[in-house]
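Purpose: get a first structural picture of the assembly so the mutagenesis plan has something to point at.
Setup: two entries, given in the order below. No constraints added.
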Amino acid sequence: MRERQAARERRRAREFEAFVGGAGGRLLRAALLLTGEPADAAEAAERLLTRALARTYAAWDRLGGEDPYDHTRRELAAAFARTARRYRHARGGVLERLTPQERLVLVLRLHEGIAEEQAAACLGLSVERVRVICTRSVAAMRSRRAAS
Amino acid sequence: MSGYKHVVSGYDRKEAEVRRMLDAPRPSVPPELAVRAAERGMRLLRRRRALRRVGWVLLTAAVVAFCVWAAVTEPWAAPPEGTTPPLRHW
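Result (structure tokens, whole complex):
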């Protein structure tokens, strides 16, 4: 029994390491866009990602066919939404002019490319609301580009 | 691709423009991040396991206590009569 558990833990650790090696960069990029930090000072983004990855690790044996990437992304979005007030004032990055919620919607929809319905379910908003926020953020980004 | 007419609505074009703005080389992940996340995940798992164990122990203790109490007091037995029957043929 104990031996079987140890074997399972070793396998989980190995699979998890391979997963982070493959998907870590993309997830960290998403976290960086969310926190609005410059790429060379990503403390908050790394903290958020570590928390999301830890929860994925804890759920690893119960994922039951769910993609660990999707799970981590959902945990990342939830962790960011809970602490969004901390990131009101972005210190850099392309999305620094947007509010935390606008950043979250834009990252899920355009960086991660997930469907409106899925993003709405992930954030606990209505589909219309997600569409409105996305349109507004896209307009804000384009006007920022035109201004610079 | 010459001669290929790609039809996109104005909004899709704008979205694609912003998508390009989000594109950037992926940052390198510090190697200790995965290790830290795994350690923290392991701690979370152990805590959940311990909590579940405590829950089961409490539930078992409650069931045993109830059974002992029921066996001792026998709450289903009829209460004894409050009055003695009248004495006759004495």
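The interface with chain B takes residues 9, 13, 16-17, 20-21, 24-26, 28-29, 32-33, 39, 42, 46, 49-51, 53-58, 60, 94-95, 106-107, 110-111, 135, 137-139, 141-142, 145 of chain A (CB under 8 Å).
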